[in-house]
Write a structure and sequence with these properties.
This protein is an alpha/beta fold and 555 residues long. 41% of the residues lie in helices and 18% in strands. The chain has a 7-stranded mixed β-sheet, sandwiched between helices. The chain is globular, with a radius of gyration of 23 Å.
Amino acid sequence: MTSYALGLDYGTDSVRALLVNALTGEEVATAVVYYERWSKGLYCSPTKDQFRHHPLDYTEGLVEVVQSLWEKAPPGAAKQVVGMSFDTTGSTPICLNSDGVALALLPEFAENPNAMFVLWKDHTAVKEAQEITAAANLASLNYLKFEGGIYSSEWYWAKTLHVMRVDHAVASAAHIWVEHCDWISAVLTGTTHPKHLRMGRCATGHKLMWHASWGGYPPDAFFAGIDPVLSGLRDRLPVTTFTSDQMCGLITEDWAYKLSLSEGTPVGFGAFDCHMGAVAANVKPGVLTKIMGTSTCDITVANYQDIGDRSIRGICGQVDGSVMPGLVGLEAGQSAFGDLYAWFRDLISWPLTHLLQRTTLMDEVTKQNVIQEIEDQTLVALGEVAAQLEVGEAGITALDWVNGRRTPDADQTVTMAIAGLKMGSQAPQVFRALVEATAFGARAIIERFKDEGVAINSVVVIGGISKKSDFVMQVCADVWNCRIDVLDSEQSCALGAAIFAATVGGVHADIFQAQKAMASPVCKTYVPGAQAALRYEKLYSKYQNLGAYVNGLSR
């Protein structure tokens, strides 16, 4: 009988399920379901940087995607699943009441965005993040030393503080806040009650300021000193944390029935998508794994002796075991990558799509099909023309900070800029500058790692952009001046979750053996062009100068 591992990947727009042969790594079946409420734009206000997910999108999506998976899988596969694990976006926390129920699942909070998951890209907590950073810098022990030294508005405590400040009803009902990756595993194992809740190392270490050297989290006095509304929350968090190769619990009878799984199927501790994706990409010291989607997340690992007691400046944290046990996980990333391209696409196509929406010359179905075709083809056409331009030909320099800057040195108050525009600057020239900007932003991360003594010898990329655009990938190779390997798997993060599921299910003795057997091969490699790399050295200096100027304006 075949043993299968089930990996679930919760993204921004959809949840993906992947069934994998736990011995060989063969990807047997996959399914994708888009969130119903999110797809309608509910509970979000982009002009306010507010992005929220209703927990029902996650639970209903889970049932639908797994049941869709069985329609494609071999007969009887559901009963041959030996383990399941989850990855999610992050930091994406939600508040639970004293019974461990997510507030948005209660009638009185069902339509309240503040009672829902505060999505990773929600930037409503900029002020709170700055206050946390200031408090850490004044403390006798800087509790941000292992989180890059700067707290981000994208992270747990800033979001918690912001929501509880603006919504007294939520603040009064909130007993504990939990990350999505920890909540979903707890839901399936029936352990959401605060007395039973256990949390993974990944989210707690990178976003919740957990570290073994200070016995868990910063003291309650630290948080209460920032704002009394936080008083007591820290003491209700479980101090012990677990790596993702460990079992969170067994699936409950109710959830086993909903998902057609065997009762008692092992469920692993969850982690962030990029961390599990890196495991599927054979992450190891010296290799940077870059997940390229709407934003990016950059993951590498280091041996204890290579890191020692040093703290890496300006990244999203260094956490023992957050990626793989026995190694220090290092995280960085960009707040916008594909989102920057999508912003430009929507900007230049708005007049046409707006007029099409108002036209009476075609029926609604035809109208929407035409608009969708325009959106689908705009970036393709831009990329085709932009690829023919010479490096530096347009004389345009752009920043990638359209959604703030995640790393190096988090600052969600900074904005993007474009310099060098002339009457002759057309859409393809501007688009090329934006692509170069995202590559420059990624290079800044690589250089920060290297400056801090972390070896980066090659890059492995996963995510939709890596498969869709030779142009973008070649620009990245030229700008970074290093080899880029593209992972073959279309569902790398879900594959990483499945690798952990196979370990939790006992098919492999440890995560290293599971990774060796199941990780994805490389499907394509990009190498830098010598002349292009040389020209980009000068253009990168212009990017840095423009960034320094914009940074100065934001102060």
